[in-house]
């Protein structure tokens, strides 16, 4: 495993947070489906997740696997079709009135497209002052100014005086994404869902924004759910945290980033990891990509029975994978939880022969 | 009393304008921006002269704001001071403190700046600017024309030329647009005849826009049963052939008060705008910034007024102008067919009477018949051209000029 140079220094302390702490957010048997005519399209199926305060969790998967839907449900922009969302051990539905609006503020989302997430009609100053004024987080105009200045400095948009009067279209993509981060921070959230937060930003400034996010996490004690399709980014960003790999609306593998990167278990995770490009051409040439049996992702309207990955899986076991629905549990020889039936048997995989 | 709010030039209006103009003048002298102050004074005098208090009072605010925006343009921004101070201590925080008078002036300056930018945006698009000049021409003609040209409403038998069979006359030095069938000066009728027509069209356009916007926003944002009902209602109205209905109604009801006519046009005109607004709202409400506002718990009122509306202003304004246009055509159509009470002076009545009195077959009457037609067409053309500028004025991207 080649560690690229951008990898942060790892600390010897285990990344896992103590289990007895109350999770800030917990998803229990969460389902979400959309109806199209009489057809029901399942987007999220039976997701169980818990996020501790100050934790980093990466949701990784192909486009269409339900990452964004999960993120939107976490912050309450989408209702769950079935299942429970617990916030600090209490069901979301039980929050009413003032508590509910406070709760809404504590869970924030950063959108993927910085060009669409800022209203073109307002200046940066207005964008940042709306939530501060609405929720009476500042007492007077001087305090408002100071808060805006602080927020812009916090996300490293300096000098703040040059930024405040500008309209979004006068800023670069990276600057806009920083403004959008500042806006989420204005309401003092405890959990931020970063939905592909850097995928629309130039590669050269991605690391800067990720570093800012990590820095904010350690300074403000935020929990961050980082949604991405790029395992290399997940590796960099969540080195201290956990990764959950999603496939067609289900989590197929979840565990600490180190374990998953060092020793991927599920065939899908292995395929994703083997597809990550390395900076060193020698390594890339030596690396054997895991060839899937099919490139096509099955349609959500027609999810294969049993393990949804079996039509593409190079380790497909007929009669086993296409019958039974795998559940998440650590297979022998692995630390992380994996949903793969052959692996859970003896911890090894045998290639499929036709 | 009527003079205070009149829409034609009057001595009372002139007095009001002069009094109103003193305010931007004093503000200009206070900030040593003499040129801006004098321009503000002139603007106030003109608008007060034209529309009395209705024109003078808004112009005080606009021109004062513009003058203040000149004075504030190079002023130190509190933010810049904070950056210079480079610290978070109490001294720097004091720099950020601003009393409410300062804040009010800053807000006014911001508004004035927007007015200036809008004026700049107005001149940027050539076609739009030509349209603006056209509209201003007709507005000034209707408002200030009566000061110079007297309305000619009597029959002038003595003007009949030697050996002529009618009173019609072509253009001459004395009567630039000729004489009509009663020997009256056509120019005076053109100058006086636009007022009622433009007024009805304006009322109809504004009312239709208001109904269309409110219903469209409600249908788009609330959805469900409200949406279904409003869509069904608009479908119903859209399927009615409008002009035949107007013909039938006009022959049954006598529209003594032109405002009822405007109301009728508005009621028939709103559905198309409502559909456009609804479609726009449906698209805008799914935008990421609206979602972000929901996540920040900013409330429905904020979302409608601050997130959705600013991005629709240009759209609504352009549609308002289009509905104003169609209302004007409809009024002229009814008048030309003689189905509403005729009131002189009116461009439509000129066409109707010209046709009645045989102007179509009289070569001497061509000027009399063409004058109102050209006036109506030019006004319509100006409106259409002006919509181009509307887009530039209300689009923040184009307005800020970067």
CATH class of the largest domain in chain A: Alpha Beta
How would you characterize the largest beta sheet of chain B? none
Question: Which architecture of the largest domain in chain B per CATH?
Answer: Orthogonal Bundle
- Enumerate how many helices of chain B there are, as a single number: 17
Low-confidence stretches of chain A: 1-18
Taking all Cα atoms into account, the compactness measure Rg of chain A is 21 Å
Number of discrete domains of chain B: 2
Architecture (CATH level 2) name of the largest domain in chain A: 3-Layer(aba) Sandwich
Strand residue percentage of chain A: 15-25%
Question: What report would you give on this structure?
Answer:
The complex is a heterodimer of chains A (354) and B (402). Chain A is an alpha/beta fold and 354 residues long. Chain A has 2 domains: 25-260, 3-Layer(aba) Sandwich (Rossmann fold), CATH 3.40.50; 266-354, no CATH class. Chain A has 12 helices and 11 strands. Chain A has a 7-stranded mixed β-sheet, sandwiched between helices. A 4-stranded antiparallel β-sheet of chain A has the order 2-1-4-5. In chain A, strand 4 (82-87) and strand 5 (90-91) form a beta hairpin. In chain A, helix 6 packs parallel to helix 7. The longest helix of chain A is centred in the middle third of the chain and has 18 residues, at 203-220. Chain A is globular. Residues 1-18 of chain A have low confidence and may be disordered. Chain B has 402 residues and is mainly α. Chain B has 2 domains: 2-124, no CATH class; 143-399, Orthogonal Bundle (MetI-like fold). Helices cover 74% and strands 0% of the residues of chain B. Chain B has 17 helices and no strands. Chain B has helices at residues 11-30, 34-51, 53-72, 78-85, 90-96, 100-124, 126-148, 186-222, 224-239, 242-252, 258-284, 288-295, 300-308, 313-336, 347-356, 366-394, 396-399. In chain B, 39% of the residues are buried.
